[in-house]
Write a structure and sequence with these properties.
Layout (H helix, E strand, L loop, with lengths): L3 E5 L4 H17 L2 E9 H5 L3 H29 L5 E8 L1 H11 L4 E6 L13 H8 L4 E5 L12
Parallel strand pairs: 1-2, 1-4, 2-3, 4-5
Helix pairs in contact: 1-3, 4-5
């Protein structure tokens, strides 16, 4: 059912659970995993010229670390999983959707903070934009709070 899974990561806590779910699905279906991190070009371009290159380098490093987390999670779950990792630069939602189309993905997995109440209308998140615009199914995985009874601690 799933041959290619794209995991969009930014290295945040809200994505870690999505990485675990995506890797688990990939292991069950013997699918290849494509991990993508997008350096937000809008964020980079809005910084002063004097620090722009430093910011871009820092975001590239953060991206490499985030992709290493996906690779490590996959190796821990199933060392035979095929992982392709890529850092891109652009607007995150279109870049993620474009990458998913390029690799002919069957599903895109992303984390979301799962806000409640009035904040749910103010999300404006990359995950929401990908869900609304990506022609490929998107699996959103909500980060569990410390109080959530489904959260397990190791």
């Amino acid at each position: 059912m799933f041959d290619t899974i794209v995991v969009a990561t930014d290295g945040s806590d809200s994505v870690r659970r999505a990485v675990d779910v995506a890797v688990d699905v990939a292991a069950r279906f013997d699918a290849e995993v494509h991990a993508v991190y997008v350096v937000d070009s809008g964020e980079v371009e809005s910084t002063p010229d004097e620090v722009r290159d430093d910011l871009r380098d820092a975001l590239d490093d953060r991206g490499e670390d985030a992709l290493d987390e996906v690779t490590d999670a996959a190796a821990e779950r199933d060392p035979t999983l095929e992982i392709t990792a890529e850092v891109r630069e652009g607007r995150p939602a279109p870049e993620i959707a474009g990458y998913a189309r390029e690799v002919d993905a069957d599903v895109v997995a992303m984390g979301t903070r799962g806000r409640h109440g009035e904040n749910r209308f103010l999300i404006g998140s990359v995950a929401e934009r990908v869900v609304r615009t990506c022609p490929i199914p998107v699996l959103t995985v909500r980060q569990l709070t410390d109080e959530d009874p489904r959260r397990t601690t190791i």
